[in-house]
Amino acid sequence: MLHLPELHERPVEDCGEGKFITSSTRMDFPATQPKPAADGKIIYYPPGVKEITDKITNDEVVKRLKMVVKTFMDMDQDSEDEKQQYLPLALHLASEFFLRNPNKDVRLLVACCLADIFRIYAPEAPYTSHDKLKDIFLFITRQLKGLEDTKSPQFNRYFYLLENLAWVKSYNICFELEDCNEIFIQLFRTLFSVINNSHNQKVQMHMLDLMSSIIMEGDGVTQELLDSILINLIPAHKNLNKQAFDLAKVLLKRTVQTIEPCIANFFNQVLVLGKSSVSDLSEHVFDLIQELFAIDPHLLLSVMPQLEFKLKSNDGEERLAVVRLLAKLFGSKDSDLATQNRPLWQCFLGRFNDIHVPVRLESVKFASHCLMNHPDLAKDLTEYLKVRSHDPEEAIRHDVIVTIITAGKRDLSLVNDQLLGFVRERTLDKRWRVRKEAMMGLAQLYKKYCLHAEAGKDAAEKVSWIKDKLLHIYYQNSIDDKLLVEKIFAQYLVPHNLETEERMKCLYYLYASLDPNAVKALNEMWKCQNMLRSHVRELLDLHKQPTSEANSAAMFGKLMTIAKNLPDPGKAQDFVKKFNQVLGDDEKLRSQLELLISPTCSCKQADVCVREIARKLANPKQPTNPFLEMVKFLLERIAPVHIDSEAISALVKLMNKSIEGTADDEEEGVSPDTAIRAGLELLKVLSFTHPTSFHSAETYESLLQCLRMEDDKVAEAAIQIFRNTGHKIETDLPQIRSTLIPILHQKAKRGTPHQAKQAVHCIHAIFSNKEVQLAQIFEPLSRSLNADVPEQLITPLVSLGHISMLAPDQFASPMKSVVANFIVKDLLMNDRSTGEKNGKLWSPDEEVSPEVLAKVQAIKLLVRWLLGMKNNQSKSANSTLRLLSAMLVSEGDLTEQKRISKSDMSRLRLAAGSAIMKLAQEPCYHEIITPEQFQLCALVINDECYQVRQIFAQKLHKALVKLLLPLEYMAIFALCAKDPVKERRAHARQCLLKNISIRREYIKQNPMANEKLLSLLPEYVVPYMIHLLAHDPDFTKPQDVDQLRDVKECLWFMLEVLMTKNENNSHAFMKKMAENIKLTRDAQSPDEPKANEKLYTVCDVALCVINSKSALCNADSPKDPVLPTKFFTQPEKDFCNDRNYISEETRVLLLTGKPKPTGVLGTVNKPLSATGRRPYIRTTGSETGSNISVNSELSSSAGNRSREQSSDISETGVSENDENPVRIISVTPAKTEPVKNKEINSDQATQGNSTERGKKRTATASGTENIHQKPEEKNVDETGPSLAAKTRRGRPPKPEPQGTTAKNEETNKPPVRGRKRAAVSQESPGSLEAGNAKAPKQQDTAKKPAAAQRQIDLQRSQVLGSDGDSLLEIDSSPEYSQNTMDLFKACGSSQEDTEDTEIAEGGFLKVKRKLARKGRK
Predict the structure, then answer these.
(1) What sections of 351-431 are H helices per DSSP?
(2) DSSP conformational letter for 1141
(3) Which sign does the torsion angle of CA 710, 714, 716, 722 carry?
(4) Going by C-beta distance under 8 Å and a sequence separation of 6 or more, which residues neighbour residue 1013?
(5) Beta strands, E only, 420-579
(6) Is the pLDDT of residue 887 over 80?
(7) Which of 109, 347, 462, 1073 fits a 20 to 30 Å CA distance from 1358?
């Protein structure tokens, strides 16, 4: 760095003769003679200096000027004589000769002299002419350009010149000049242009002093002068000369108070007035504002309000520019602008809702920096990000996720739970890109804060829900979602690259901490992967077989199945075919693939195989290879990257540590009992998918230890693991066998029912002498049956039932005597105990009496016994079906002694209906089930008890979706249209969608299925549905509009799903079926005109619906449909039925959906939409009550929405446990009397508008489900005053008491019992029942107001409750089908028999709540 002298230091002077002088070695020369100047004044030169004229050479001029410079340097302001003496010389130095001298040394020396002259003569300058002053200062300014080269020999003189000017503030003289601005602009531009990184701090300081004095002491800063400063802040100039930027930055900081008004004026001209011509920098205003704000926010005090004005501009691009600017200002790390200027901050936040998409996008991007730099503003941003997370633009929703995740990865404390909730919602977004970003972002957070615990336990707890949520997504229909969940599981939840022990520890505690739905999703994931492995294994087996047409067809079908398990199945089909060709040609590749899917393949071998196969298929010339990517997807799904024999051993060791109490269970956040139970469940699931990995003595010893534990669930899981994996125990591990047999015998005789079932199946599966083993269990149990001790009957009945099913040849005959003598006569036909008359229609499992549980198991035993025999030679099936029908007819009270409670009757009705449905799955028994018995079974889905309907519907769906039940049973779902609970109707619709899609897909994938279209084609359900509805007990008057409307609702409930697509002209096909039915007769009652009239009426309603909903139904049907002969007679040749059974007026009423008059129902909860029904009035004196359940805990947003007004309970003061918690009042259209009832819910005013897919429904309440009217109520029957038995839904008539038989006016047949409903609705105009109905007395309304809670466990019916529900926003939320759990998947992962009805144990959907029943005569 050069040393630059201070002002008082004098530069060395060259005397021209090789000698140098300084001020300290000054020599006195004799004064030269004065020379006359041009104006006549005498010029005195310093001693030794000769006259300086244009006659001498430049070198001589320089030499003489140096001495003059020296003289002026030594002079001070107090030397009055010298000042007067050298005044002419000072004027002479300002002559044109010097100012325009071509020699730069001369000009420099003259400038130094002039600077000293200004110093000496200050404050008055010797030059009085303004023009001369201007010329002088412009001349001096030009000389300052010499500062640029610090290595120049003259640099010290240039520095002296600058120092002198700055110290004296010589330029302030120019303020008196009119055009001083030109001088200042030139000066500023010169200084900014010459400053560079070779200058030291002193040069910068003098420049600053010089410029700041001009700014601060002047009258203002002109726009041109301001531009000369601000131009250095523009990014382009800033990058070119960083030192000029720094100089301008410091200058602005120093002069902030003076220059701020000028800056404000500039921005006001440009931003507000739009005068872009005022400055060349107008187009850079936003860049300048950003830089000025960074320099000193005070520079923009008056500018910020102008930005608020610009934020509201009508020009979208202008708003975008302002938003970009403010995003930087608000988001910069040290900015407190949001706090200092709240109006601007609020105005900026408003741009999150801007109509211009780029503006919203820019606002969202800003949020990330703001969250990271200003956590205190998170609260303000949250609400706006919430709205943008539902933005219709995919890119904006995507960036919301990126914003939140980026901040979360920086520091989890920066994002609150609400922000994470937005990401959680977007995992169900409609767009794959958004869903993927949300899922991957959450996975990264989980791995960082839970798996690696980078921020402690609190942070881990904050994001502990992520694992459950990610696994819940596996329930979505999209294959992309499933594959991403599998990838996330393998890379983030349980990283496959961990060592075996660490990996299994991670899996062990993950499984123990998952919620039930996540556990099922994980189980389903392993099941799907295992199924895909089996498909690939079967494909490889086909490659080993000789080429044939059948082999090729089978191979093609297998390839299509595999392609469906890959992303973009359309493209995947081509890639899978290509991969199959490669497999056929490359034997080594086949062997690698066989090793990969081998049961003995270890995780390390799998990794090697995947890499080897990918290497063989890679093409170096093709960097992006879609074919290879698709194959990698397939390999990743089938490769066992987590589980092998070593992994199972590690899991068993972990479980042993938990049993011994030496594990880190508490540190991992789970209790030892939970860890043990979850560990066994995990092993049980893996025993299905990786049975070979369990075969070791150490593993089985640990399982034997679990069998001895007191925990029933643990023992049950251990038995099931033995059942799944113990095929070689008998031959390879005799010691394990000898220990296991007595334990299994003990569990089969005295264990829990589930243990007994598993023990019997285990013995049958793994032992060669199973007949002997089972006999040793069967004989003592069959002899020890005692109906007087029902609590000791349940396990023996379970064991006997499964033994007779597994070994029918050996035990069918012995079981017949047990069934006849004990099961039927002694157990089912006797009621030994009296049920509790609490009025409940359903009770928790633990409250059900042992006798009823025994009867339920006895019914299951009958079914298992028949399923084992698989024949009806002994007519046992007919007897059993009659018994089950009688149980349904008697409402579950087979003995009709009225000793059994309502809740127990519900259990028995469910068991009987499920038993008939189970027997129908066996072809030999399906044939003997009569239409009447089928209708009885179907009506269980309209049972008065909510849980009965719920569980029955799930069993029905589970059997249908596996194609186990005949097609006619799918027609039962049409009756769900009458269900008053919206959740049940939605669930039934999803079941229909699933069933229909599976059947259609099965027909496509199996060419041979065309031969069985009558039993597979979904459209063939129409005749079954028509026949079922024609025999609906509620359908008694073919011309009653209300009843026809109910029929229409049921028909449309099914037809809506069937008519979604017009595949193969299916609309015309269904129309043709309905028309053909009118040419037949009802096979159930062929000669009864009333029955046939009802059948034809339902056909006309169906035709009406089909014609109104489809314009394509009038086309010709592709084929003539075949009608089931079991339900319809063969059409007669000469029979023509062209009569219309519904009038035109009725047709219009049905199609326009004119609302029916609604009943009035006081409720204790929010009304639910329900079809209006006629009131049903009980005539018997039986106890009545409500269907209550305990352990209420809503787990879905749908459940919450349906119970928003649960607070009404406290208002009415009615306890749910009371027999009559509500007051029911019916209103008829003919005679409507004003009703005053404090308990009537105000929501009834909107009942007429409550619809569900076009259905008008009467509002009912969840609080009034399963409620009977009190027996004291007196009602008048339509048929007269006689109290004949009223119809009850789902049960044919019981024998009527003597003396009370009454004829039905409409038919000669005995009246069929109709559905029992609590929801009171409209009777026909002539009815007096509703008008005479009395409100039941409210008794004990204050008893136990909170004794029971509502519970809905959506394990099977809906996707994960609030965890998975996403708001239906504009084009950004998944459809309802994505929010509904796939029951098939949920149920398919369990091997529990479908007849198991233990609600709490069996994993079925538990919705314990009251159901509003649709009453009618």
Answers:
(1) 357-373, 378-388, 394-410, 417-426
(2) S
(3) negative
(4) 1003, 1020
(5) none
(6) yes
(7) 462
